[in-house]
Amino acid sequence: MKKKFKARRTSMNWVSVLALAFCCMFNLAVFGVVNYSFETPAYTGSAWVNISGQPDKTDGVVGGWTFVLSSGIARNGSPWVNTAPEGMQTAYIQNTGTITQDVEIENAGFYVLTFKAANRPSYNADNLAVSFNGSQVGYVSYLEINNSAVFKEYSFNLGVFASGA
Fold first, then answer.
1. Which residues have CB under 8 Å from 133's CB, separation 6+?
2. Each residue's pLDDT tens digit, 61-118
């Protein structure tokens, strides 16, 4: 059954986000987050794009990310990110922007959401709320995210799901 992952800013500052994986802790099976390192579409130089301002508001990958309000993808060296923790790009969220993706849970188990986040270089971050299937499962304070634009890993328990739940 499909569940929705959502990350959103809770006020008016900036954050860069890299969603790494959803992990089933019982059997360590990782189920796919499509375009988890935001490498598609590939941008060149120090480019960044406010995808939420585009007509389809997606990364163009089937089953991939949807960007709402002020959010998009930024390449290393752009105003949004010095160095992505994996690959060359990250997502960014500003103001009241959100990024979402539907994910499929096929195997029963206890699931944990793990991702990395950092503040925009030379800007303070603010709080980050993380939701799964319509419920907030995590909250990261701006005090934790403000780290000289260095990505830090965060994990939140999603709970136990039955097979196909």
1. 3, 4
2. 878 888 888 888 989 998 888 888 888 998 888 877 888 888 777 777 788 888 888 8
